[in-house]
Design brief:
Helices cover 40% and strands 20% of the residues. By secondary structure, it is α/β, with parallel strands linked by helices. The chain folds into two domains: 4-121, Response regulator (Rossmann fold); 131-226, Orthogonal Bundle (Arc Repressor Mutant, subunit A).
Length: 232
């Protein structure tokens, strides 16, 4: 069943574009343009995530958020703020927002934040992966260590965390920006390029030929996929 997103945004062209892109990604989307319509929409639609603009007619996004939290509604909320409005961001987080993004924003970053929030707030369905063995190397994701019986390994904790993200979504294509979000947060665009460096280090450690990889596959224009165990 697809996740339900409630978009509370009064800028009509932006709302249409976002709704179209979210639906193309498989989400169920409802849009309201006024803050005083948001509470009823949350009660009726029961979204998995609310994207909430701050500057809204009828009622501000901060007031909407405050009412939700006062009533005990813990639906994840991603605030959309005007660039430079630091006070609004701080107040939003203090009121219980789960994340914020300043306008104008890149669609790719918004999509990544939505996916990350939905993953973080989804009910746990399985125990987190604790260990994995690839190419004779044993990875311990709790201790963030990697050991090999016959050679020293030069892997950082971030290298191992990148593999952990891939292992937890084994068989899926994981976008680079998702990996950045999981490993270190979206604090720098340069981190996208560092993901490739982490993969190079991992491939070297497990003896994975980048031209014909057995384990970590590059999906051009998308990201990486860790092969399922029966294909490795």
């Amino acid at each position: 069943m697809s996740a339900r997103l409630l978009l509370v945004e009064d800028e009509a062209s932006l709302a249409r574009g976002l709704a179209d892109n979210f639906r193309a990604e498989g989400y169920e989307v409802r849009h309201v343009a006024r803050g005083d319509q948001a509470g009823a929409a949350v009660r009726e639609f029961r979204p998995n995530l609310v994207l909430l603009d701050i500057m809204l007619p009828g009622r501000s996004g901060l007031d909407v958020l405050a009412e939700l939290r006062t009533k005990g509604d813990r639906v994840p909320v991603l605030m959309l703020t005007a660039r430079g409005e630091v006070v609004d961001r701080v107040v939003g987080l203090e009121l219980g927002a789960d994340d914020y993004l300043a306008k104008p924003f890149a669609l790719r970053e918004l999509m990544a934040r939505v996916r990350a929030l939905l993953r973080r707030t989804a009910p746990a369905t399985a125990a987190p992966i604790a260990e994995l063995e690839l190419g004779g190397v044993r990875f311990d994701f709790r201790a963030l260590t990697a050991t090999s019986p016959d050679r020293p390994l030069e892997l950082t904790s971030h290298d191992i965390l990148v593999l952990k993200v891939l292992a937890e979504r084994r068989g899926e294509i994981v976008p680079r920006i998702d990996i950045v979000e999981e490993v270190s947060g979206l604090d720098s665009e340069t981190m996208l390029r560092k993901v490739d460096n982490h993969v190079v280090a991992l491939r070297r450690a497990i003896g994975d030929d980048p031209r014909r990889p057995r384990f970590i596959h590059t999906v051009r224009g998308s990201g990486y996929r860790l092969a399922r165990a029966d294909n490795a």
